[in-house]
Structure formats: structure tokens, C-alpha cells
Specification:
The chain is α+β, with helices and mostly antiparallel strands and 478 residues long. Helix content is 54%, strand content 15%. Among the domains are: 87 residues, Beta-Lactamase (2-Layer Sandwich), CATH 3.30.450; 91 residues, Helix Hairpins; 154 residues, Histidine kinase-like ATPase, C-terminal domain (Heat Shock Protein 90).
Length: 478
């Protein structure tokens, strides 16, 4: 059904629609009743239907013959009658009465009762031969044609049955028509609600012929317009966030370039061994930040707006981040080294624990290091100033699968029940117990996204004692 193609029509209240169909239904019922009566009347006028008392009339006409005939035969009786001939003493002589009715008929004669058992009447004739003839007849209409009388009910009953059948057929047809009419009008509601559900909001206001349905359609149209405006506002907000993040990433480049340039100048001079180690950490961290900024710009900016420097940064990130098979122990070493640099820069005391690792796994190095960096940053943001952070590596088994588990534990207040449900949602900042001015609700969301891309899992839980634990599970090669 094409939206916007219908013209606005004059709507009627559903009461009028219902009365219209009630009138149609009643008129049809009266028509079929009239038709049944007229058919009966025409057959009666044509002489094809015998009147209800036709047996009684024929018996009156044959009365003299019945009394004077030497023997009563079926030819003297109207069709449909039964009879019996008795001696004046009540002895049965002959006739068509069944055996069980022979005595009953004589009893009715003796008591002058003309009402036969069931449906029918008795007529008594005193014959010239001093015999009594009892005839049983019925008051009912019949077809003149004997064949029709045998295969069809009597005409008056046939008229009633015919009307009932026609009435039921009329009811079925009108109900089907009414149902089709209502389905056609209500289908518009289903189509409109389906389009709103699918967020297909580019359609004109619809109308039907029913006022109540039009009122609902008008409400749905208003809801559609409100939803459309809300979605546009949401899209504008999201676009604004992307632009802000892109602008922030661009602004970070300048101080980062200064830091890297000064560190490179320091590296050319004479430094103590400890100072060289610090300077090397600065250069490595600056290079990592430049890689992250390149990736961030690649995500936020369309390809046509990326600068040549951003293209080169993306190419470098792709080359360094290709998935490859690596020993678990080697990856744990890289993660431990990154943790050492980050915790040392923030002057957090750290405790490293690594069990014996074996086996290999496939992963994207840049994405895993970014996820790991976000987890460490989240732990430092929520750990007390005098607390320490524990980093551990081990192999976990889950059924037939084995995972390299890299965990970071802090001594903060831990996750609340709400945090455990929503901690990985974008821009979720948690309750005040784990909130900080430098926490914007994207670290764990980004970490989970990167880990899941490697086929892994991110586990968020509280420690048995005070603190929280965030663990990366990377599936090992079988």
C-alpha cells in the first residue's frame, strides 16, 4: 500500500458504520423471508401445493363410497391416510393400521375421541355392511406431485428450512463483507505503526473512512513527527560529539609534537642511564598516542577529509596491527611492559604476577594494547592515591576452550550493582563512588569492543576484598 497516495475522505463515526451494516443485515434477512413466502405463495396459486386440510376434503368427497363399498380399498383413501375396518363388536377385520395401533383406534372410536396419538386425527365411518371404518389422516400441506412429496419435506416446513439456510448464508456473507471492510481500514494502522517501528518516518498522514481510526492515525502522525524531531536532535548531538572529539584529537597533536620533539632532542644529548630510560618511555608513549590519534581521526573523519599525515598514520597502524599468531608468554610480556610504563608515569606501586604460560593465540596487537591501556587507565582513575595495582597473567580453561587471562586489579571502592550492568556502555560514568573528573565513560566501552573483535571476552567484577577486577580473556589456538 503506497503511503501518501490516498485522498482525504469524509469520515464517519464507527456507530454509523455499524448501523449501516445492521441495516444491510436486517434488509437482507427480510428480503429472504419475503422471497421464501412468495415462492410458497406462487406454488400454492399454481396448484402445486395442496392445502393443509386437503385430506379432510377428500374424505368428505369419498364418504359415501367408503360407506357403501363392498370392501374398503386404498384407492378410496386420500394419499397419506391409513385405515382399519372393524366388526361392530370391535373385532379387527382388515386395513393398513400397524398392529400396535389397531386396538388404540377402536378405543378412540368407543370414546368418540378424534385425536390420534402423535400428529393426526381419526374419522369414523359406519358402513352399510354393519362394519366400522376408522381412517387416520393429518392436517398438513403436501406437494401435488407425489415424487416431490417423497423427496422433500412438506411445503410449509420447506419454506421455513429454506429461510433458515438463506438467513445463515446471508449472515456469513454480510459478516465476511463487514470483516473485510474493517480489516481494510485497520490495515492502515498496522502499516503506520510498522513504519514507525522501523523508523521509516518519511510518509504523509493517512486517513480512513472511520472517524475513530482517523483520530488514532492523527495521534500516530503526531507521535511520528515527535519521534522524527527527537531522532534529528539525537543525530545532531552525536554529530556534535564526533566533531568535538575530532577537534580535541587535532588539538592534542600540537603539544604531543612538542613533547616528542623535545624528547628526541634530549635523546641526542648526554643523559644518565635512568634518564635515558625515562626518555625512552616518553618517546614510546608519544608514538603510541600518535597512533591512537591517527586511528581516532580515521574513525571520525570521512575518507575525503583525511590529511596525508592521517593517511600515513592509518597505514602505519594497519601494518603494525595485523593479526598474527604469537606465543602467550610473548604477549604477556608486551602487556606487562606497557603496564610498567603507564603505572610508573603515574607513580602507582604495582604488583606483577605471571604464572607459567604456554600455547599461542592470534590477535591484533594495536587493538589489544589499546584495550589494555584503557583498562589500566580506568584502574588508575579509580584507585586511591596510596593504593597499589596488581597485574596478573594466567591460563584459564572453559570446557574445551583455553584463554589467556590478563587481569588488572585496583584497591578502589569497586563496582556497584549498577556499574556491573552498564560499565561497558559508551559514556557511562558510573555512580559517585567510582566517578572522577578524568573519567568520561569510554575506556571500558572501547576496551570491550576491541577485545570482542579478537574473539575474546571482557570480564568485570569485584574482588573478594575491597577493589575491582577487569580481565581480558583471549582465546588460544587449539
Amino acid at each position: 500500500m503506497q503511503f501518501g497516495g490516498r485522498k482525504t475522505v469524509h469520515s464517519k463515526p464507527i456507530t454509523m458504520v455499524f448501523l449501516r451494516f445492521v441495516g444491510l443485515y436486517t434488509a437482507g434477512a427480510l428480503f429472504w423471508l419475503f422471497a421464501a413466502v412468495m415462492i410458497f405463495y406462487i406454488l400454492d396459486a399454481a396448484g402445486e401445493v395442496l392445502p393443509a386440510n386437503h385430506m379432510e376434503i377428500q374424505l368428505n368427497a369419498s364418504a359415501d363410497d367408503i360407506r357403501s363399498a363392498s370392501e374398503v380399498t386404498e384407492e378410496l383413501m386420500p394419499e397419506g391416510c391409513s385405515y382399519g375396518v372393524y366388526a361392530d363388536t370391535g373385532n379387527w377385520l382388515y386395513g393398513t393400521f400397524p398392529k400396535e395401533e389397531q386396538g388404540q383406534a377402536w378405543e378412540h372410536y368407543e370414546t368418540s375421541s378424534i385425536y390420534a396419538p402423535g400428529k393426526g386425527y381419526y374419522r369414523f365411518f359406519v358402513r352399510d355392511a354393519k362394519e366400522i371404518c376408522i381412517v387416520k389422516y393429518k392436517i398438513m400441506t403436501r406437494f401435488r406431485n407425489p415424487y416431490l412429496s417423497r423427496i422433500l419435506p412438506r411445503p410449509d416446513l420447506l419454506m421455513v428450512v429454506s429461510f433458515v439456510v438463506l438467513f445463515l448464508l446471508h449472515t456469513a456473507v454480510v459478516s465476511r463483507y463487514f470483516g473485510k471492510y474493517m480489516r481494510t481500514r485497520l490495515r492502515i494502522l498496522r502499516e503506520v505503526t510498522e513504519k514507525i517501528r522501523c523508523e521509516d518516518l518519511e510518509f504523509a498522514e493517512e486517513h480512513s473512512e472511520i472517524r475513530e481510526v482517523d483520530e488514532i492515525l492523527s495521534s500516530l502522525h503526531q507521535m511520528k513527527e515527535a519521534l522524527k524531531a527527537s531522532l534529528y536532535r539525537q543525530w545532531d548531538v552525536e554529530r556534535g560529539k564526533d566533531e568535538q572529539i575530532a577537534a580535541l584529537a587535532h588539538d592534542i597533536k600540537t603539544p604531543l609534537t612538542v613533547i616528542r620533539g623535545n624528547a628526541e632532542l634530549l635523546a641526542e644529548g648526554e643523559l644518565a642511564a635512568e634518564e635515558k630510560e625515562y626518555n625512552r618511555d616518553i618517546l614510546q608513549s608519544a608514538a603510541t598516542m600518535e597512533t591512537y590519534l591517527g586511528i581516532l581521526n580515521e574513525i571520525l573523519l570521512p575518507g575525503s577529509e583525511r590529511t596525508g599525515e592521517e593517511e600515513r598514520s592509518g597505514e602505519q597502524e594497519g601494518g603494525a596491527g595485523e593479526s598474527g599468531k604469537t606465543a602467550c608468554d610473548e604477549l604477556a610480556g608486551k602487556l606487562a611492559e606497557q603496564a610498567r610504563r603507564l603505572l610508573s608515569a603515574r607513580q602507582y606501586p604495582a604488583l606483577f604476577c605471571k604464572e607459567e604460560l604456554h600455547g599461542e593465540l592470534r590477535y591484533n596487537e594495536i587493538q589489544i594494547l589499546r584495550a589494555w591501556s584503557n583498562i589500566l587507565g580506568n584502574a588508575m582513575d579509580h584507585s586511591p592515591a596510596d593504593g597499589k595495582i596488581e597485574v596478573s597473567f594466567k591460563i584459564l580453561e572453559d570446557g574445551e576452550e583455553k584463554y589467556l587471562a590478563a587481569a588488572v586489579e585496583d584497591e578502589g571502592s569497586g563496582f556497584s550493582k549498577q556499574d556491573l550492568l552498564h560499565a561497558t556502555e559508551q559514556f557511562y560514568q558510573g555512580d559517585q563512588s567510582r566517578n572522577s573528573r578524568t573519567h568520561y565513560g569510554i575506556g571500558l566501552h572501547t576496551a570491550e569492543k576491541f577485545v570482542q573483535r579478537q574473539g575474546g571476552k571482557l570480564v568485570i567484577e569485584n574482588r573478594e576484598v575491597m577493589g575491582a577486577r577487569v580481565m581480558i580473556l583471549l582465546k588460544m589456538e587449539k
